[in-house]
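Input/output pair, single chain:
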Amino acid sequence: MVFPFRRSAICAVVSCLAAAAAPASADEVRFFGKLTMKSVDEFIRLNDDKPVTLLSIFSPGGILDAGIKLGRWVRHKNTDVRVEFMCASACANYVFPAGRKKIIARDSLVMWHGGPQEWEFTEIVDELRRQAAQAMPPDADPYAKFAVAKLGRYWSVTEYRALETGYFKEIGFDGTLVVLGNQPVHYDTGWWTATVGVMEKYGIKDVEAPADYGTPAYLNKSIFRRMYFRDARLTFELGPDGAVVATPVGN
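Output:
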């Protein structure tokens, strides 16, 4: 991918990441990178016996299972979570909401883009079940067999949904923000974030962030949005009446 930035700007970001590599205090641990089962297992192995009070994280996301495993570790340790630079996808869905306190550092982003509870997955799973019934003997439909073979990977969606639903109950998060950009209204956006007020409304409590976090002005000046989330076309704010409002974000 080619980013429309001067070399100096990119070097500045890299320098910041390098400077942030070491913990700032003895009770702080850091997770930088994708959420995979291998990376999370290794992280827990190295840090499980430490008296941790703060997890600093910089992650573009990863797989659901790994995000939930790290989120449960955060809950078990009763630690705060601080986002450094960005926490997206599975990081935003499962790790960020698990913190005792959730801290968003200046110029950092928490970005959602969907999950297994979306309606489109419901439609696919329902169709898979219908085709599976038609593919059963004694009058198995060959076309249904073909469809089941092609759609078989969506069986895992039902398992992921159950895992996610149970986890959200554990941490007191209703999961709305995970799908809010796609339903009940499907907006023309690939990613979205929200102000602290909206996060609290949907169950993500004790969030500490810059005063203007989640506003269009904050997003429009973010180098990370322009580098990685250029199709993030809206954010969610609270209107004067306390209702959640989708607010467009400029290019």
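The chain has two domains: 7-112+187-248, 118-174. The beta strands are 28-32, 54-59, 80-88, 102-104, 109-111, 192-194, 207-208, 234-238, 244-248.
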